[in-house]
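Note to self: keep these together.
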Amino acid sequence: MHSGQAAARWRAAALVASIVGAAASSYLLVEYLTGQPGVCLTGSGCDLVRASAFAYPLGIPMPLVGLVFYLGAIWLSLRTPDGPIAGVRVEAALLSLAVIGSIASLILTTIEAFVIRAFCSWCLVQAAAGLALLFAALLLIRAPLERVEGWSSRTRHQATRLRDGERASLRRTGWVGGGVAALAVAVLLVVGAAQGAPIGSHSPSGFASVGGPRLGSGPVEVVEFADFQCPGCAVVAPILAGLAESNEMTLVYRYFPLDSIHPNADRSARAAAAADRQGSFWAMSALLYARQNAWKELPGADADAAFLAMAGELGLDTAHWKVAYGSAEIAAEVDADRQAATAMGLNSTPTLFVAGTRYTGPLTAEGIHAALSAAR
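Structure:
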């Protein structure tokens, strides 16, 4: 049995870290399951991470995995004064769990940094809680052990009373920490709800991206996964724009650059996304499609210059456009849509979803109009 006030403090620290991690996981899980817009301290990072293919490994929401992990850590933290479980010191079990969690957090944070290229603020809170748990578990297991051999019955009785007091104090810490965490989660959910409707409210399929380019205000939502270097996308683009501008539908654009066959697909997607920062996505989109043959085979630097010239033609602030075009945030936005398309098994453009159902009819005004009429 561990002794001393230091061990008690590290038990309490492990418990608090676990509660913080569980609270962050719970908040994220509600967002994932309901599509509720959330409070994100890293700009659009939370939405980009949630839209990535890594958010649902094997179809399981990642925050659910985190919640199970931290609930297990809470249980072990509360059991530490009671002795071994199944012949294993509780402190050792807690440390093992903390090590596994820290390794998982390191992997996930690395994916966010170098693959998704965006950070979810609450994922970072989870990771920080995991590191704090690891630190507390390490110091707890290093605390000196009580040597009960040779103790008198009175001394044993006093030690038992001290352990009972420690357990009671630990439970109080758990109740207070849990209450504060629950209140914080509730406040965040209320603030998130005040920011707008759930993400999926405009799309029965949930295929529409958060804050993605939209055109029109028709009753039927059409989500298009497209590539600006795709000839078929160039053909269908004015048809979709016409139907949206007549308010027969609401068009939502999602980037799906097919880099393996179109060398400038990613650059053109970033060019349009950078124009979107100045409210000119659709104008840039139309210009890219209209001049597709002029830029599609250009080498990288020449393509960059061509897109910059287009931004100037549209009257954009080219300095700001250029910064956005080369930014990690724009790259992450494009990549999030690409990963979402890949996760859905899409492999061609244009791919349309009409009211949440994949459209397989002819890419003509008549065919798409018929699908819109059937969806009303």
